[in-house]
Structure formats: C-alpha cells, structure tokens
Automatic annotation (TrEMBL):
<dbReference type="GO" id="GO:0015035">
    <property type="term" value="F:protein-disulfide reductase activity"/>
</dbReference>
<feature type="transmembrane region" description="Helical">
    <location>
        <begin position="20"/>
        <end position="44"/>
    </location>
</feature>
<feature type="transmembrane region" description="Helical">
    <location>
        <begin position="154"/>
        <end position="174"/>
    </location>
</feature>
<dbReference type="Pfam" id="PF02600">
    <property type="entry name" value="DsbB"/>
</dbReference>
<dbReference type="GO" id="GO:0016020">
    <property type="term" value="C:membrane"/>
</dbReference>
<feature type="transmembrane region" description="Helical">
    <location>
        <begin position="56"/>
        <end position="73"/>
    </location>
</feature>
<keyword id="KW-0812">Transmembrane</keyword>
<dbReference type="InterPro" id="IPR023380">
    <property type="entry name" value="DsbB-like_sf"/>
</dbReference>
<dbReference type="GO" id="GO:0006457">
    <property type="term" value="P:protein folding"/>
</dbReference>
<dbReference type="InterPro" id="IPR024199">
    <property type="entry name" value="Uncharacterised_DsbB"/>
</dbReference>
<keyword id="KW-0472">Membrane</keyword>
<keyword id="KW-1133">Transmembrane helix</keyword>
<protein>
    <submittedName>
        <fullName>Disulfide bond formation protein DsbB</fullName>
    </submittedName>
</protein>
<feature type="transmembrane region" description="Helical">
    <location>
        <begin position="80"/>
        <end position="102"/>
    </location>
</feature>
<dbReference type="InterPro" id="IPR003752">
    <property type="entry name" value="DiS_bond_form_DsbB/BdbC"/>
</dbReference>
Length: 179
C-alpha cells in the first residue's frame, strides 16, 4: 500500500523546507520594500537623505542572498550553507533595524544625526546664474520627515520591516538547524 504523497509527485513535500520558505519570504519582502522606496523617490519625488540611502544596503544584500539561499535550499544544499545564508540575512536586517531606529530618533529629535545632506549635483554656471540655480536644488536633511503615515516615517517603517525580515530569517535558521 502506498501513501498519496508517494504515489503522486505533486503531493511530495518541497525540498528545502523552512530554509526555502524563509529565504523566499525575505527576498519577496525586501524586493517589494525597495521597489516602494524607489517609487517614493522616482514617482512621488520624496528624495532620500543619506541615512535613508544607507538603510537600503541591507535590502540590496537581502534580495540576492535570499534568492541564492532559496536556490540552494531547493537544490538540496548542505545545512551549514543554508544556515550561513539565513544567519547573514538575519544579522544584516537586524543591524538595519538598528540603523532605522537611529534615523527615527534623529527625526524625532531624540539625538543629533549626521551633518551631511544630499541634493543633485548641478553645474552652477556663471556667478549671475548662481542664485537662481541654488533655488532649484532640494537639500534633504536626515532630521526632517518628508512623509508620515499613522505617525511613522519611512525610517520607522524600515525598522518594522527589517525586524520582520530578521524574525523570518531567524525562524528559518532555527527550524533548519533542528532538521
């Protein structure tokens, strides 16, 4: 007598288990989040400050590393490789939550932030044109919130999203380690 999962290949459990699930979820969340950040920047013209740009690094790491870890899990890679990928994702997103917390504190005036600002680099031309061109440059400060929803800025949402990704990666790590 055969079980249904043995007789029908579609009912077999997927290879990779929790490592695959966790890495795919993190990759999807990171990709949607960075796409949202680009939407705010390119479509809504809410330009990022230097801290905002630094917070994107964790997403730029999580997307390809999550995809590689998912591929490795699906391909039946050894457990230490999967654990390493999930651990790096968890640590990077946890550190990013810390950076987002710092940025949120700067926005709320809890502590001082960096003194550098961003703005488009333009050719200022001759001295007579200088003042008119300076009026068109938008300087983005880390301590000024450009957008809030339900009381949270984008830095605040970054904290929540980064903590979620860290928790998912940690869950995948623990479950994979127990297998």
């Amino acid at each position: 007598m055969t079980t249904q999962s043995a007789a029908i290949p579609a009912f077999k459990p997927a290879a990779g288990g929790p490592a695959l699930t966790a890495s795919l979820l993190v990759t999807l969340i990171a990709a949607v989040t960075i796409a949202g950040a680009w939407f705010f920047q390119l479509v809504l013209e809410i330009l990022p400050c230097p801290l905002c740009l630094e917070q994107r690094y964790a997403y730029y790491l999580a997307i390809p590393l999550g995809a590689l870890t998912a591929f490795a899990a699906r391909s039946g890679a050894r457990r230490p490789l999967l654990l390493a990928g999930l651990a790096i994702i968890a640590l990077a997103t946890l550190a990013n939550a810390g950076l987002g917390t710092y940025h949120s504190g700067v926005e709320w005036g809890v502590w001082k932030g960096p003194t550098d600002c961003t703005g488009p680099v333009v050719n200022l031309g001759n001295a007579g044109d200088l003042f008119s061109k300076l009026d068109t440059v938008k300087v983005v400060r880390c301590d000024e919130v450009q957008w809030r929803f339900l009381g949270l800025s984008l830095a605040g949402y970054n904290v929540l999203i980064s903590l979620l990704m860290a928790a998912i990666a940690a869950w995948g790590f623990v479950r994979t380690a127990k297998r």
